[in-house]
Request: fold
Amino acid sequence: MNVSETAGSTDIPVTAVVSDSRNAHQGCLFVAVKGLTSDGHHYINQAIEKGARAVICESLPKNIRSEVSYLRVKDSIKALGIAAANYYDNPSAKLKLVGITGTNGKTTVAGLLFQVFSKMGHQCGLISTISNHIGMKTIPARYTTPDPVELNELLHSMVTEGCTYAFMEVSSHAQAQFRTHGLTFAGGVFTNISHDHLDYHGTFKSYLKAKQSFFDMLGDEAFALTNLDDKNGMIMVQNTKAMVTTYSLQAMAAFRAKVIENTFTGLHMQIDGQDVWCKLVGKFNAYNIMAVYGAGRSLGVSQDAMLAALSMCHPAEGRFDYFVNHEKITGIVDYAHTPDAIENVLKTIQEIRTGQEKVITVIGCGGNRDKAKRPAMATIAATYSDKVVFTSDNPRDEDPEAIIQDMVSGLDVDPGLKKKHISITKRREAIHVACIMATSGDIILVAGKGHEKYQEIKGVKHPFDDRELLKEFLKR
Reply:
């Protein structure tokens, strides 16, 4: 890190690196970070009172304490990443760490890579939306990409436990907040990009730039694998120093595939001329499979080994997670919470259905998040469904009925779409009504929350599991 000024000794041991003054304790290093809602510089004295003996900050406080060491830097959030990496002895450099970024597919690709390399006998780590793994040990996940301290602590634990590979989701928020700064990546994977998180990034251009910045930070010894079929695929890697490689279902790419058959039981694909059967469903998952295949090949794994391992993998929890009840009603739970994701899932259902059964979709939109996508998601859901039930997702601090009204506004362009929908604010009731509406052979999709086991309302996370409720109601 570039230190512009120091006060006190720089040769002192520290017991931890913290960026929250509430976590400060005897002998720690406190990094004062300017956040969205608070500025760590206001809490330097509190951190010192709790035992901090070193401080990294962008401006030195007026009262310098003789027993404390101070380092002034230009950007303390970047310095936090470097300090955390140094404190944990740069664990990412001791692993083959692969980051996956994109709007949709991050969780599936990271999880499949973890499965594939574990099946090949490697000790692996996983950092994802659903959970974090160190070998066979599971650790709950709070964020898609943890903060720099937690991230380096996880990677250090992976090294200590003998992991040689680690796979992690890299969110746009993480890049905008420099959470991965100071890490060494063996490679990066781009899945796709579409409308999401504009509540945070403001514009699609800023969102794209945040994703692109991940590839900009890769070193010349890393690989950068991109989806050639996404119109922004090559833009992602245009400034990277890494070795660029591509995958595609439609164009000439380094790794190519085509879908032979798509059913509820899986995908029959031809990858680089070889046939393989995978348990995942849908064309969107064919892209996820190719991202995994391309990453494995870029890491030096043979084609035969990759295809054999892929054929044994199962989908991530809450990603096109389906079952069939005794009346042959198919229930599907999926995390789809963007316009592109819900369209992918519903198009997959349309491709598989025989044409006689009804498709009933239960869907909501999250509160305190990108409002612009609400009418678009509603329009897509109504277009590809025979019946659609608008309901609550995680309303957070917003009025759930107001969120639903934002969704309903997307149907104003077509009276035919409006006739397909009903609105039921309580999600449990909405799922129950969808099950009552269904008859033998019908398909019910419950979208938006996937693996989540809660519903967030007014700052409280209430126990809630889409899959368990859907199974319960369909048993009746």
